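Marked as duplicate of an earlier ticket. Keeping the data here for the record.
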Amino acid sequence: MVSFFTRLKSGFSSAEHVFYLSLCFFVISLYSPVSQVNNLAIVCMGISWIYAGYYKNLKNIFSDKIAFGLLLFYAWQAMTLLYSNNKAIGGMWLEYRSPTAYLPVILCSAYVSVPNLKKLLFFFACCTAVAVVLGLLCSTFLVLRSGDTGYLYNDNLGILFDRQAVYFGMYVNFAIAVFVYFLQQNYVTRPVQKNAIVFALILMTVFNYLLASRISMLVLGLFWAGYIAYTVIRQKRYLSGFIMLFGAMILIVLAIQLFPKTMNRFQSVTNAGYDYTNLHEFDHFNGEISKENWNSLNTRLAIWHCGKEVLRRNWLFGVGIGDAGDQMIEEYRKNNFYFGVKYNLNAHNQYLDAGIGYGLTGFLVFLFGILVLPLYVAWRERNFLLAYFMISLAIYLSTEVMFNRNQGVTFLAFFMVLLGHLNERKETKN
């Protein structure tokens, strides 16, 4: 961290320095439990963007494929407000999703050199490691005070930052990928720092397990499996691959033995059957698992079946951004899905949500702007971090509607655009 701030002092003009500091402030604000801090960070970013004169480079929007894709999808959502009946709700969702409009404008027209962008990514990973330690300390304190070991699991680990487990897990997984990337790039050279990062990687992997977010564990498992395979097959480092594989197996066994409650999250999904009229509550990892209860799997299956019916009736243009939620609730009532009505459940799938709201046409715009263009940039630039970020995002979107959450939409818009500039082959200052 000391070397980070030492290097930060050099290589900037005053305007660039101010803007870069605003980006660092934004990274810190991702872990603030007060949403106004994140809003303040964005305001500071906008002010420093104007101060640096980056607004003169707005033409970059048309050449930056990732920023253009985000703006295209946001514009399409805004267009669907015209045929939405509930324009008040539609306007609210447009406000929630506005970071996918103004963050691409700011970031694609600003100048952040590749070395300084790497510093920012490393800073994010360090902040995440600190957040993991603080989350564990806070949860340990709550366990000691209450005697309830449930505080060491799931959403309880994010109490200090008011972060849900799935979003905290997404942040942690990305930080792990960043640390691995910099170890591969020899960005960190001192043995002490390398050892600290290896320890952080182990700690964050265990932390991900404690978060008990199945989708996050799936993403992390695929990442480590892919990295071990790359180490063995591509780099032919057989001993290193064996050590990592053996270490992973030991870590998994120890984690299951020492923290058994995470496994309750897997036991509940063995029950995929559902009855819409079921009045029982939701399974909880810290309570008794019952086949009569709703769980994350059968709840989603019930939601997706209802969503499929709404989509079937409005397959071309959808119901509009303002009416998607109302149409889902109406379908819940039609099927006597009392649990869905009670908790006003959304589609729990960004792809389905896009189809319901915007139809086949909007869904194709969504795929093109949010996934295809960034993946094309990652392939063209051989950008490992962007490729990982987009593939993991595609997986997360299959079970979450991240555009409805500030902790999701600001994170993905910010890093999608910045990562697109990480491996530019010809770096030209605007």
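See parent ticket for discussion. Residues 114-146 form the longest helix (33 residues).
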